[in-house]
Amino acid sequence: MPKTGRNDPCPCGSGKKYKHCCLEKDRAADLAPAIAQGVRLQAQQADHAAQRKEYEAALQQAQALDAASNAVVDLVHAGRLDEAEHAARELLVRYPEVHDGYDRLGMVHEARAQFRDAADCYRKVIEFTRANPEDYDAGFVDSFLERIVKLEACATEAERAVNDANRFG
Ligand SMILES: [Zn+2]
Known about the structure:
Layout: H1 23-77, H2 81-94, H3 100-111, H4 115-131, H5 138-168
The structure holds zinc ion.
């Protein structure tokens, strides 16, 4: 279709010049797909921005959890066990949806030679892996199972030593 000139009679048959009649309407119609595409792109960008924000928030949360979790390890290694226990219990309160609090509390109990309490914590850790198996690999569970077996053996050994001391001491 040949383009209508601005001063040509309007193709709608009104008898007016095109520029005084349908020119603006036609131009808007021509632009409509581009505008719609622009709106779609903007919506997509807003979507991506929202996803990115969500991802960054999750990342920040994970980093905060890691930092808090590592802080407990540092306290245990420094022998500051009361502070470590406090920090581990705070992990449990702040991040109840992950295993880390029980993992760290178990470390504190181990450092205090509270073998059965430590084993109980690690059983809780394993419960988490059962609830969210996709978040863990098999080696993770095995390593905790191994630690539980060792801890129970240590507890039995320690109790026997105490009994022997009482009997022969
Ligand atoms: Zn017209």
